[in-house]
Design goal:
The complex is a heterodimer of chains A (409) and B (228). Chain A has helices at 4-17, 19-56, 86-95, 129-133, 146-151, 160-166, 210-217, 239-253, 269-312, 314-322, 327-364, 372-398, 402-407; strands at residues 61-66, 70-71, 74-75, 99-114, 117-126, 138-141, 155-158, 176-179, 182-190, 205-209, 228-233, 264-268. Chain A has 409 residues and is an alpha+beta fold. In chain B, the strands form two sheets. Chain B has a six-stranded mixed sheet with strand order 6-7-8-3-9-10, with helices on both faces. A four-stranded antiparallel sheet of chain B has the order 2-1-4-5, with helices on one face. Classes of the chains: A alpha+beta (409), B alpha/beta (228). The interface between A and B is medium-sized, with 25 and 27 residues. The complex binds adenosine-5'-diphosphate and magnesium ion.
Chain lengths: 409, 228
Amino acid sequence: MINIPSTIKISFKSLRVNKMRSALTMLGIVIGVGAVITMLAVGSGASQKIEEQISSMGSNLLMILPGATTAGGVRMGIGTQPTLSMDDTEAIQRECPSVLYVAPIHSGIAQIIYGNQNWSTGVVGTTPSMLYIRDWQLEQGRPFTEEDVRNASKVCLLGQTVIDSLFGSINPVGQIIRIKNVPFTVIGVLEKKGQSPMGQDQDDTIYIPVTTAQKKLFGTAFPGMVRLIMVKAQSKEDLNAAEKQIAELLRQRHRIGQKQDDDFTVRNLTQAMQASEQSAKVMTLLLGAIASVSLLVGGIGIMNIMLVSVTERTREIGIRMAVGAKTWDIRLQFIIEALTLSLIGGAFGIIIGISGSKVLSMIAGWPTIVSPLSISLAFSFSGIVGIFFGFYPAYKASLLDPIDALRYE
Amino acid sequence: MAIIETREITKVYKIGDIAVNALNSVSLLIEKGEFAAIMGPSGSGKSTFMNILGCLDKPTSGRYLLEGADISGLRKDDLSTIRNKNIGFVFQGFNLLPRTSAIENVELPMLYNSFSANERSQRAEAALKKVGLSGRENHHPNQLSGGQQQRVAIARALVNNASIILADEPTGNLDTKTSAEIMELFTKLNTESNITIILVTHEHDIAAYSRRIIKFLDGYVVSDETKT
Ligand SMILES: Nc1ncnc2c1ncn2[C@@H]1O[C@H](COP(=O)(O)OP(=O)(O)O)[C@@H](O)[C@H]1O
Ligand SMILES: [Mg+2]
């Protein structure tokens, strides 16, 4: 029968006797645990940043692009043929049950002038649904309405970057700007969104009614046609169904025969974004795995010191055996010593890891997130390392012959 | 029933091709409460015999009955339990844990037993009192004289109420006066607590404290005399 509390007491006592050595041995684990926590924090910080960017795009998004038609045997690229119309947009809204919102986009690059300032940016002609699709709020002013779309009103919503470039400290709402020399009234300001997952500045944009864009700014030879259509599905689970319903509807509307290829492409934006999120998670794991190596090295340090300790304390082991210590009394004593070293090291490592993550995020300007999971993971890993690397020295100690051990000089 | 009975015990050490017969057919009976001294020249097998009596080692052949029970078939951990409960060791070099207080040294055997922390310190204090070391509980071995260190070792041997104390040259490192004090302590433990004491010594003065003197030579028992 093993007396655990007194075994723990014995272990603590011998660690106290060799304070300096114990502290140095712990250092390896401190660094290991600190590194694991910091690396996981860096990784999950990156994941979270990407996640935020993805949700800034709006969730459950599909994008419908025209083109990819076969003209005389030559397959044209996506977007080369104006095959999507305003009517398609309305039909999708009407007939696809898995679709929540639909908005057309008819856009182009244009020169903007306000007073003596000018700026070149993407002007997006769309409908009021677009703001719902992108989950985009207005910071001030009002959105344009269906009526604005019907009347092709010359009103616009400005992104933050455009405002910063043109207005400075002037309140833009109510001001008149000139887009391609056409005067537009600013009726609202879009809330700041930051970068897209692809690194684009989402705030460098102007929203205007789609009809205005078609008639006044970016007229084409095909009136009523749009560049692309954005769709928000009812839910994540509805994405695939929505994709199918849209494809079916458009094939029917565009009179595409059984054997013909689609003259449009439906792209699942959410899926594409999730791939980059996935790779951030893989990176987190990779960073954690690399940091774990330093924890293993710390474990080897513990094993080294424990082996030295067993040799130095051979006589002590002999005395303990002579007065009745059994195999597992001796083993547990050394395992608990190793475990204590690694757990105390682990506790300090948590502190180092948390402060390390803070410092790193300050220096690199990169968010880091220390999750309770990563802390408990690193801490229990340090415990496992302690037991694993403590076992062999403990095993060696328990195999000593008491007579030889008592005679050891 | 004798507390210790050995029947034709031999111990052979093999070093490479050479076999050393450390013990040759040693048969002895020691009764409970006896005080026996083992004498003999260096290398005659005294320590080997003591180690077997103390269950630290097993004989190559022959049987060893401790309180009537044959210990030859027992496993390592069972022998540990027997050492813990029945046997107290006193060594020439004291064998105390360094950097550890006297009371903690005395508590050591009880750590491998089921005593509570409270019982441990009470019993250790009582044992230290018995060997005349009250007030020295918190001294470390390097703060104690040789005689005092040996007293701590004796207290450690007593603390689990061992019925046998095995002392291998306990006075070998002590001066004459201190040796006499230690021998008086053994005598007191033998007469007052009826503890069986077997000690190894080179010196006739020391052996004179015991009633029985067993002499070893080349692994044989060559004489066994009891004072009348
Ligand atoms: N572990 C051992 N390995 C080999 N020979 C040993 C060992 N222990 C003792 N011996 C030998 O056994 C004999 C008896 O030794 P020991 O019992 O220590 O004698 P004593 O204690 O009477 O001086 C000696 O010849 C010694 O060299
Ligand atoms: Mg000897």
